[in-house]
Design a protein that fits this description.
The protein is elongated. By secondary structure, the chain is of the alpha+beta class. It has seven helices and ten strands. The chain has two domains: 96 residues, GAF domain (Beta-Lactamase), CATH 3.30.450.40; 157 residues, Alpha-Beta Plaits (2-Layer Sandwich). Strand 2 and strand 3 form a beta hairpin. The two termini are 59 Å apart. Helix content is 43%, strand content 21%.
Length: 274
């Protein structure tokens, strides 16, 4: 099957006019109307439009008939019988693909290319349930760019956008295949680390912190503060896990920024080492 660009020698007019073309010998129509780069075994071809009502879906082009002869009216009759089903199948496939693209766009942050909170919220709840059901560890990191408002005010929003994209690049390069990074909002990012213990989460967070600190930025280097919380018996909901990570992030800011802090829900303590 071939979906033509309007204007091709045969397929374009067939699509525009909605009428099939059957040529038993290409020599009879002259090369001005023939398909480009004719290199087939037989001189006969059929170009058949696929329509749904008045909508033009695609064009089917056929050459090299299996019997070696020319296409005939009986071949058009066969195509007429099956073309509607083919058109519907192609149209449904396109609609399904478009729906998938729209869904992907709805959960993707357009600036950074990361997932967004609309995706992360239900995914976090799902991973927490799985963690509790199977006894797997789970960690959540909340990351915030330090003094980002000042960066934006000083260098302008285009520079700020570039910095956000750079942080997103660091996250993509630093995380494992099972990890999930999302733009949480503004200059804040969330990183979900399935099957990850506290000490492992700290090493990942510290690696991210160092990578951001040393990354080349459009105007000046930036730093990030990161808060970590892990699944524990005291945490029942994803909201509580988010709150715990937020507590740790708040403390990382209080400790001078460019810091990683961990909130231990069981003891209520916050530390900067695992």
């Amino acid at each position: 099957f071939h979906t033509p660009n309007i204007g091709l020698r045969v397929a374009g007019p067939v699509l525009l006019q909605g009428s099939p073309v059957l040529v038993d010998d290409i020599a009879k129509i002259g090369m001005a109307s023939a398909p480009l780069d004719w290199s087939y075994k037989t001189p006969s071809f059929v170009s058949y439009p696929l329509l749904i009502g008045n909508r033009r879906i695609a064009v089917m082009n056929f050459t090299d008939k299996a019997t070696g002869g020319s296409f005939e009216k009986s071949d058009l009759d066969l195509l007429q019988a099956i073309a509607p089903q083919i058109a519907v199948a192609i149209d449904r496939t396109r609609l399904k693909d478009q729906a998938g693209q729209y869904k992907q766009l709805s959960v993707t942050d357009p600036l950074t290319g990361l997932l967004n909170r609309r995706y992360m919220d239900p995914r976090l709840a799902e991973e927490l349930k799985r963690s509790k059901r199977h006894g797997f560890p789970l960690a959540l990191l909340l990351l915030d760019i330090d003094d980002f408002k000042s960066y934006n005010d000083t260098f302008g929003h285009p520079a700020g956008d570039s910095a956000l994209r750079k942080v997103a690049e660091v996250l993509k390069a630093s995380l494992r295949g099972v990890d999930v990074a999302a733009r949480w909002g503004g200059e804040e990012f969330a990183i979900l680390l399935p099957n990850t213990k506290t000490d492992e989460a700290f090493l990942i967070a510290e690696r991210i912190r160092v990578e951001v600190e040393t990354a080349e930025m459009p105007k000046r280097r930036i730093t990030v503060s990161i808060g970590i919380a892990t699944e524990s018996p005291e945490i029942d909901t994803s909201g509580e896990l988010i709150q715990a990570a937020d507590f740790a992030l708040y403390e990382a800011k209080n400790r001078g920024r460019n810091t990683v802090c961990i909130f231990d829900v069981a003891s209520g303590s916050i530390d900067s080492t695992p």
